[in-house]
Amino acid sequence: MLTLFQNEDSPTLTEESRFTFLCGPGMPCFNQCCQAGLIVLNPGDVLRLKRFLQVSSSEFLRRYAVRETEARSGLPLVFLRPPRGQETGCPFVSEAGCRVYEARPDACRLFPLAQGSVLTPTGLRDRLYLRQPSYCLGLAAGQEWTVADWMAAQGFDPADPRRRAWVSLLLTQALSGPATPDQQDLFYLAAYDLDNFRAFVLTSAFPAVYGFPAEALAPLADDEEALLRFALAYITATLEEDEPSLVREALREALLAEGPG
Ligand code: SF4
Ligand code: SF4
Questions:
Q1: Which ligand is nearest to the CA of 109?
Q2: DSSP string of the chain?
Q3: pLDDT tens profile 74-104
Q4: How far, in Å, from the CA of 127 to the mean position of ligand 1?
Q5: Which of 27, 98, 135 to mutate for ligand 1's pocket (most ligand atoms within 8 Å of CB)?
Q6: What is the pTM of this model?
């Protein structure tokens, strides 16, 4: 079985599992979590953050992210860029706390929980578990939560189809061997650089290659949620099929199913 973002040593939690946790500016460990590691971004995180910061996706990626290669799939991952001169940490941490709190990434919302994924013969299976870094004093104090209540309070959707499509792509590609450089760049464009993906779809030869009339794709110009769903459907079909007629059929279904706009 292939796994991603897993910690096999931590017990699996259910939505009814309970834990205690307290966090806030009064904690002696305040902000240590935001300096201790690297925060991976999924496609929904990039979209939320670039909107919050009111920059284009390419500007966001250039200023605030670093691109790495996921070892088994060869596909690109993006992480928040640590402050200059540091190997870990987040560009948005300040003495007062998180400067992008409303738009913080899923990994930050979920902490001290984490979600890993396993690719099984019947599909993707997600697993929630508790992280217990020694620097975090919030786990030894505070109020009792159920996992479901914590996720709801933090605005984390454990079934987010965008995250699941992204993880599924990374794990599926790992089975078939490392992605080629062209596949890597296409994945980066579709999964993370949504503004450039929009231009690719609407202003390149894309409509002609896949036989779409321009008006069929026009709703994607103004609806970024629909555009991201389309982008993930596109990269999924391309990595799996790489045959224009099959990719076109998958995209047509995505347009019909999602009802962009
Ligand atoms: S309690 Fe944990 S999550 Fe909260 S500030 Fe401290 S280290 Fe970070
Ligand atoms: S985005 Fe906010 S919560 Fe997440 S690591 Fe950065 S400062 Fe901390």
A1: 2
A2: -EEES--TTSPPB-TT-EEEE--STTSTTTTTHHHHS--EE-HHHHHHHHHHHT--HHHHHHHHEEEEE-TTT--EEEEEPPPTT-SS--TTEETTEETTGGG--HHHHHTTEEEEEEEETTEEEEEEEE---TT-GGGGSSEEEEHHHHHHHHT--TT-HHHHHHHHHHHHHHHH-PPPHHHHHHHHHHHT-HHHHHHHHHHSSHHHHHT--HHHHGGGGT-HHHHHHHHHHHHHHHHHT--HHHHHHHHHHHHHHH---
A3: 999 999 999 999 999 999 999 999 999 999 9
A4: 22
A5: 27
A6: 0.93
